Each structure stands twice: as structure tokens, then as C-alpha cells.
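fyi for ur records
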Amino acid sequence: MRKDIFLPALAVAGGAAGFFLRRWQLASAYLPETGLFVHGAPATLALLALTGLLALAFLLAVLKKKEGLDDFLPAFGSPGSGQMTVLTAAGFLLFAAGGLGMQEGFQGLGLWRANPAMYQLSIPGTQLLAGVLCILAAFGVLLLGRMAYRGELNGAGCFLSSFPALAGLVWVFSAHLKHGTEPVLMKYGFGLFAALLLTLAHYCVAGFLYGKPRPRGTLFFALTGVALGITSLADGPDLFTAAATAAFSLSALGFARALLAGPWPERMPPVEEEEA
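which gave:
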């Protein structure tokens, strides 16, 4: 089977399996009265085993370096409408995530103003910043998809290409702040690592525009991030986190599929008809 079909499908299927295992773990192995997980619970072992096997499978699958993937258009320049559709959906989800992030940030800012001693300003501050950057990241994803679809680069797309990774970085930092005092990594680890891997995937995508192509790293981060992102939705995250996870996962999946199917041939500009 073609890798550009099998590996993205494996990421989605593995994430779906992880989602149900995570729900099983939360229902059978989590003790709300203590805030801890039962040591050695079958659900936990199954979930960790699945995560490890998926990461190993993706690592082995992308070890072979493909030739001709040293620039953005040869790597992602798919003329098909499917990739553009996926990236457009990811862009609109990023717009939604941006609005939700700013809403949560303003709500947190109001709580801080009411009681500065109880609430930290850094948490709503990073939520507001993440929301604003998600709006810019949405334009970045849409323009990256447009450049790939049309087979030509433009200045605005190149400038905004780094904003998805920048928004992801602030998202990771915001998630860390929200759970910074939580000693049990199992409670939030899947969501945090998903955000980190998806951020790295988009950083690597932008690297193709700046002479730093890393096809193997891009594929590993994207595919593993998608699987962990779907798994983390089982935690019932807030609306901003859910929208951001869905958006970054869709975008990473679209770029990974194009990269697996490449290199894409250079498209010549249309020949103008000679005047009679």
C-alpha cells in the first residue's frame, strides 16, 4: 500500500484506538479521591504500549530519506484539491481557536482583576497571546495551502509560514502553565506532548521555505502528533484546546500526506496565447 495513504490512515486509526483506551483508563484506572492512577492497570499498559508502537512504526517508516525534498514546492506542491480542502478546514478551525483563546483569556483577566492574590496574570496573558497568534496562524496555513496548490510562492505566505509554529509554541507554554502545579503527568501528558509534536511539525514545514528541510523529522512529528492529538481529545479539554488540537492535527495530516507523496514536479506557468 502507498505510504501517503497508509501512514496518515494509521495515524488517524491509532489516534482513535488511543482515544478509546484513554477513556477506558480514565473510567477504570483513575481514582478521583486521590487524583492518582492505579499502578499497572491494564488500560494504562495498553495505552502506553499502543503509543510506543505507533511512535516506533512511524520512526521506522520515515527513516528512508527521499530525494528531491529540499524545497517547499517539491515537498508539498500538490495540485490536488484534497490537500487544499484539508488545510482550509484547518485554517478555519484556527480562526475558531483564536476566538476561543481570546475569550478564555479575557475571562481569566477578569478573574485576576477581581482577585490578584488568587489568580496568576501569566495564565490569561498567555491565553490571549495564543488566541491572537492562532488568528495569524490561520492565515499562515491558508496561504501555505494556496502556495502548494498553485505551485508558486508569494511574500505574504512565506512571511506568515512561521506563525503556526509560533502559535503552537505559546499554546505549549500556556498548557504548561495551566498544569504547572499538577504532579501527575499522566493527567495531562498526552495533550501536552501532542501540542509539542504538532508545533515541531509546523516548525519543520516552515523550514522548507528557509533552506532547512527536514523531511524525516516533519513526518515523524506530524504523524505521531496527530495520533497523540486524537488520543488527547478523550480528556475532554476546554474548547480552545480542542479546536487547536483539531486544527493543528488536520494541518499536520495534510502536509504529511503531501510530503509522503512527493517529490512533486515543477509546474510551468501557463503559456500565453499568441495574438493573431
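The mean pLDDT is 90. thats all i got for now
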